[in-house]
Design goal:
335 residues; alpha+beta; 12 helices; 53% helix; globular
Length: 335
């Protein structure tokens, strides 16, 4: 799992420019690659930082418990998630960890369960989920892995796991190709979904890490808009007004439902997901909140009316929010 996330950090960093170039949905702000990279990086580096480890997990537990390892990475990703793509990946990672808790190795059946839990949680995190995005890619990967696992009748061999991983990646690839025809904005620009391509890369990194094989270099060949000679397509899109607001906040389930409903009324791309699975002494859970709104002031005031948020960030949608990450080498260090 550590190798998977290290490889994913490297792969997404090296592809971030191309992901940014085709990022036109839900807003053409050209930062999907950057946001996904920063979120994957947070997950990967959490596993190399014992000081940041959750005290509830014994130091040696995370070394052998697959679920504990991914849960730790998922919490770090959720706390530092950036944008739609990063937030959905963080949700994916946290949810995937749950069926793996207490297990010391991955099997075909566990992979299928983890992918299924992850895609369901990602779909439910969004107030208005849309097919033709990385959600569809997650779902296709889960369905493909489940079909292979069902055909092996509980076979827990590495061979069965390999076939399930192959199927998941192939299913994800087919879903990425299909995104173009599922969203009018993508079809008009003749590109596939940027977040979907990023998720495909991450899944191929999982396959590579588990099977001990290299990434499938030809995987992205032929994807519309992904040729390195293509210009930054998002730059020709209309400028998007408004801002992206993100924060972490402790809320009761009722207050969380209220916040989601009221954010839906004033904004778009509302994503809310629990950072932790355990409530505090007052019955509140920590939530990561993401929304696109015309003006940050009413949104932040609304959030503050229900609790005390932390890690508030407000970013313009009309411009890329971070410099593109430097490419990294195979060891995961910036060049």
């Amino acid at each position: 799992m550590k190798r998977w996330l290290d490889n994913a950090e490297t792969a997404v960093a090296n592809h971030s420019d191309r992901l940014n170039a085709i990022n036109i949905f839900p807003v053409a702000d050209g930062d999907t690659g950057t946001n996904l990279y920063l979120t994957v990086r947070a997950a990967a580096r959490a596993l190399h930082n014992p000081a940041g480890q959750d005290e509830a997990i014994p130091a040696d537990a995370g070394q052998s418990d697959v679920g504990a390892v991914l849960a730790r990475a998922g919490r770090a990703a959720m706390e530092q998630a950036r944008g739609n793509s990063g937030t959905l990946f963080a949700v994916f990672l946290c949810a995937a960890a749950e069926p793996l808790a207490g297990h010391t190795r991955l099997t075909s059946t566990l992979l299928a369960a983890a992918l299924n839990r992850a895609q369901i949680r990602a779909w439910s995190a969004l107030s208005d989920p849309v097919p033709g995005t990385m959600l569809s890619v997650m779902e296709a990967a889960a369905r493909a892995a489940a079909a292979v696992d069902a055909g092996h009748n509980g076979d827990d061999s590495n061979q069965a796991l390999g076939k399930a991983l192959d199927a998941a990646v192939n299913g994800a690839l087919e879903a990425v190709v299909s995104t173009e025809s599922q969203l009018a904005a993508l079809e008009a620009a003749h590109v596939v979904d940027a977040g979907g391509v990023g998720m495909l890369l991450i899944l191929d990194c999982l396959r590579s890490a588990v099977l001990g094989e290299g990434l499938q270099g030809e995987l992205l060949d032929g994807l519309h808009g992904y040729d390195v000679q293509d210009p930054h397509i998002h730059a020709d899109m209309p400028v998007d007004d408004g801002v992206e607001v993100m924060c972490t906040i402790s809320l009761s389930p009722l207050s969380a439902a209220t916040l989601r409903q009221r954010l839906d009324e004033i904004g778009e791309s509302v994503i809310m997901s629990q950072v932790d699975s355990l409530a505090d002494a007052e019955g509140s859970y920590r939530w990561r909140v993401h929304v696109h709104v015309p003006d940050s002031v009413p949104a932040v005031a609304l959030i503050r009316s229900l609790g005390e948020p932390s890690d508030i960030s407000v970013s313009e949608l009309a411009m890329a929010r971070d410099p593109e990450p430097a490419p990294v080498n195979s060891s995961g260090h910036e060049r």
